[in-house]
Amino acid sequence: MPNTTKFVGCAASNFRGGRPAPYRPEAIVIHIMAGTLLGTDAWFANPASVVSAHYGVGKNGEIHQYVREEDTAFHAGRVTAPSWTGLRKTSNGKFVNPNYYTIGIEHEGLPDDDWPEAQRAASAELIAEIGGRWQIPIDPLHVVRHHDIFRSKPCPGAKAPMEELIRRASTGPAGIATPPPAVTAPTEVTALVNLNVRAGQPSTSAPVRRVVSAGTVLAVAGFTATGQTVADNPFWYRDAAGDYFWAGNTNRPNPTA
User: What is the model's pTM?
Assistant: First the structure.
């Protein structure tokens, strides 16, 4: 994750913990704040707003994280006259709430503002890292404007450098397009010590749901690379109930290795 990323969070009523099964992040939605980074911090922290996004990118390249990628942010739930062909539908033809399978990135500024280089670079790097974590292809079908979902809202605006962001996020140093790296996560791990399983959040501040004895084999439903860093290790595993345990206490401390 970009070094300038700061987790600031948001009001508990402005996001949903986890994602409804069987959904996972499949695409990235680009937004404009129509305001400042600090103003968006305050708006997302206000329970009355009932809105959020996973990230916000400032004009100076600073990145704020409001919602963990494994959780559902309220950023693109309304679907009106969409042009995005990646929208998912139920068996009866109704649109699935896009919040369930997208990650939202807000950007400081107004729709008619030019994006400074620092903001472009930080956003492209963030998009690339999200794509790598979730195996999301970096292309126009998977990196889309909010406007492509909610037609009546001009977000992120005509000056949003969508083509440039996609090109920079999907191109290596030598200028050769490379797909995001595949991550084969383990389906089970073994506890090396007595291990705390935390309720709903990858953090030592989350309540302990249960304690697992050393030597226990644990089923793994997924993992995050953006949990609380413990002993220089930010990886946490998620079980089928949506609870987390720190990867450093298992035989696979790095799920991507």
Answer: 0.68
